[in-house]
Design brief:
The structure is a single chain. The protein is α+β, with helices and mostly antiparallel strands and about 240 residues long. The protein has 3 helices and 11 strands. It is about 15% helix and about 30% strand. It is globular.
């Protein structure tokens, strides 16, 4: 009888242990990455109309250019509730020709391939910078330069930071860099160049926390000057 009671006691003890373990893991998941992984949904990116259809021209291009895709971009999954936190946020630039009212177009939500939506920036490596006003958990950044014709932009670098000066002390992180000649001075990039399309370039930020976003470019296969139509930053207030 004592043996049976002991076995029953051990069984109850094991069950309580498993229950406590499950409750602990459940609470950890609710407060951490498990919850985010379970609530991933396709990101709702509203695309502008295509401005051109076809295959790349025979014009010589840099050797590290991605082929123009013939299929739509797969859905990008992010936690539920993530939105474009860059909408109508302040934009500044290294280009001295860009007025504040022109730079505001980069976060106004207008992405169609029309002349009035494109902001022209002087030639050479230039950047635009967005102040998200407070730290955000950033999951994706989508960039449209000018997608009215088949073109490839050079020296594209996308960085995030905690401060506006992008100094080492401000936790600068590079999310994308195809600047293989280091024209921006941010290091030699290993990412590939790509054709501009109405889908824009989506960059996975993997939930990184930052307040500021800076995007470099250095002309294109069509012109030496720079162009920028829209930048969207998908995130939510930092937790």
């Amino acid at each position: 009888m004592g043996l049976i009671k002991g076995m029953i006691g051990n069984l109850h003890h094991q069950r309580r242990g498993r229950l406590l373990l499950c409750l602990t893991l459940g609470l950890a998941c609710l407060g951490g990455s498990c919850s985010r992984a379970q609530n991933l949904v396709p990101l709702n990116i509203k695309l502008p109309a295509p401005a051109f259809i076809g295959t790349p021209s025979d014009k010589p291009l840099p050797p590290n250019v991605e082929p123009l895709s013939k299929t739509p971009r797969p859905p990008f999954l992010a936690p539920a509730g993530v939105a474009n936190v860059a909408l109508h946020k302040k934009v500044t630039s290294s280009a001295t020709n860009a007025a504040a009212e022109d730079l505001a177009k980069i976060t106004d939500g207008e992405k169609e391939a029309t002349e009035e939506n494109v902001v022209l920036l002087t030639k050479g490596s230039q950047w635009v910078q967005i102040d998200l006003e407070k730290p955000q958990d950033i999951y994706a950044i989508v960039l449209w330069h000018a997608h009215n014709t088949q073109k490839v932009y050079h020296g594209v670098v996308v960085q995030i930071a905690d401060g506006p000066d992008f100094t080492p002390a401000q936790n600068v992180r590079t999310l994308f860099n195809n600047d293989n000649e280091n024209t921006a001075g941010q290091g030699v990039g290993t990412d590939r160049e790509y054709f501009e399309t109405n889908e824009g370039k989506l960059i996975d930020a993997k939930g990184a926390k930052a307040r500021y976003v800076r995007l470099y470019s250095n002309g294109s296969t069509a012109a030496r000057y720079n162009e920028c139509t829209e930048v969207e930053v998908y995130g939510r207030p930092a937790q």
